[in-house]
Each structure stands twice: as C-alpha cells, then as structure tokens.
Amino acid sequence: MRKPRFIAEQGRKPSGLLGRIVARVMAKETADENAFALELLQLQPEDAVLEIGCGHGETLAKAAKFVSRGSLSGIDFSPVMHRHATRRHRRLVAEKRLEFHLGNSDRLPFADQSFDKVFAVHTIYFWKTPLDHLAEARRVLKPGGRFVLGFRPAEDAGFQATFPSEIYHIRPEAEVAQSARDVGFEAVELRRHKRGALQISFVIGARAQDQPA
Ligand SMILES: C[S@@+](CC[C@H](N)C(=O)[O-])C[C@H]1O[C@@H](n2cnc3c(N)ncnc32)[C@H](O)[C@@H]1O
Fold first, then answer.
1. Residue 118 has pLDDT above 80, yes or no
2. 151 pairs with which residues across the strands?
3. Ranges of each domain in the chain
4. Residue 20 contacts residue 85 (beta carbons within 8 Å)
5. Ligand 1, atom 27: nearest CA belongs to which residue?
6. Is there an atom of ligand 1 within 6 Å of 121 CB?
7. C-alpha distance across the termini of the chain, in Å
8. Ligand 1 pocket member 43 (CB < 6 A)
9. Which fold would CATH assign to domain 5-201?
10. Ligand 1 atom nearest to CA at 53
11. Alpha-carbon distance 198 to 150, whole Å?
12. Which of 33, 43, 76, 95 is the Cys-Cys partner for 200 at CB 3.0 to 4.6 Å?
C-alpha cells in the first residue's frame, strides 16, 4: 500500500514531533545496511570521513570505533535530525571526534579534497538532480578517496509502489552507477546487500590519484 505523503515527507526531511520519533525508529531500521556501508568504506584509524544525509548520526558514532585518530563529519538539512544527532552523540561531539553540520548536500560547506571517505545511505531518493550532489561528494573527496552510496533500487517494484514518486525518486542500479561515472568517479562497482526480503544496492567509486604533471 502506498504510504501517505506526510509519512514520505518525514523520510525526506524529518520535522516536528513526528520527526523526533522518526529519528529513533530510522536509527534501528537502517542499522544493518549502514554497518555494511562502513565495511565497504574500508575505514582506517586516520581517515577523515563524511556522511551525507547522516540523520540520527548513529552510523558515524559506530564509525568512531574504527576511526580513532581521524575525524568524522555528518551533514543533514533537517534541523530536527541535526539537533537529535548532536544531543544523542554529545560525548563524541564534545571530544571533537564527531561534528554535525546543518546544510544541503547540493552545496557542501567543505573545502575541496577534505575527506578520505564519503558515504550516503537512503538519501539519493531525495535528490531531484543527483549529479549536483554526486559532483559535490567527489569535489570534497581527496585523490585516492573512496565513495559509497547505498539505496533501494527501482528493480525492487514493491519499493516503488510504496512511496509517492513526487517525493521518492527511485532509480535503477545502472543509472545510479552511470551517474557516479558521469561526475568523474572511477573504478565504479556495484554490490548488493540483503536485509530480510529487502535488497539494498551499493555503488562504490574512487577518486583517482592526481596524475603527475
Ligand atoms: C531516509 S533518511 C536516512 C538517514 C540515514 N542515512 C540512514 O540510513 O538511516 C534521509 C536523510 O537525508 C536527509 N537529506 C535528504 N536530502 C538531503 C539533502 N539534500 N541534503 C542534506 N540532507 C538531506 C534527511 O533530512 C534525512 O535525515
């Protein structure tokens, strides 16, 4: 059955009292595929890591177990999610191991080549023009850096039938992989992960090392 618009809107940009509940539920619901995303990132202790659409912040807090000397940053455009994540992970924030930014991923507030690893899970659906967001992800990645994008694909007909298409832009795997190539990611590959009956697809890309002049 198709979800009502107001529920779909909570997935896109959680807000109000319901948004606070969504933050808690989502942290549990998506934990499995987010753990898989962390594996795909091949985290190293010194990495600078960015999560786009970090929501509840739970995944970055888990990444802190692997990233002991690097830095962890998240960005989300929902003030409710930003507040929730900052409060919930206040210890890591106070220790300056984790920071949460409020902002839109079509214009990331970071300098070029700031991060070793960049990832986003269940966020591409809300990008009407994904190339703008993907280009930003690549811009802030260092040469040699790794990018991981997790999403439910259009190949899952049940997913498409459940969410209103004016809010959820659900795309085929091959289209997402091609978009990653179009903005300049290299060595683009596809991996799949199962959570019960659900399939989560992952597009992985790299930013090439700078070529010597
Ligand atoms: C469905 S939630 C997924 C949260 C988390 N990544 C997870 O897997 O549990 C999508 C999140 O992306 C955020 N978001 C959507 N579009 C965004 C954009 N253009 N810029 C920044 N955040 C965005 C939403 O506010 C929301 O917190």
1. yes
2. 201
3. 5-201
4. no
5. 55
6. yes
7. 57
8. no
9. Rossmann fold (3.40.50)
10. 12
11. 13
12. 33
For residue 97, how far is its CA from the centre of ligand 1 (angstroms)?
21
CA–centroid distance, residue 87 to ligand 1 (Å): 17
- Residue 79 identity (one-letter amino acid): P
pLDDT in tens, 183-205: 999 999 999 999 998 999 999 99
Pair of tokens at residue 191: 């991996």
Residue from 123, 128, 140, 169 whose mutation best tests the ligand 1 pocket (most atoms within 8 A of CB): 123
pTM above 0.85? yes
Encode pLDDT of 119-139 as tens digits: 999 999 999 999 999 999 999
Nearest-CA neighbor of 81 among 129, 122, 109, 133? 122
Distances (CA, A) of 110 to 17, 99, 138, 176: 30, 13, 12, 24
Across the chain, mean pLDDT equals 95
What is the Cβ-side half-sphere exposure of residue 134, based on CA atoms within 13 angstroms? 28
pLDDT of residue 18: 93
State the pLDDT at residue 211: 61
CA distances 93 to 39, 57, 87, 124, 198, Å, are 23, 11, 9, 26, 33
Task: Please tell me the distance from the alpha carbon of residue 201 to that of residue 153, in angstroms, as a whole number.
Answer: 7
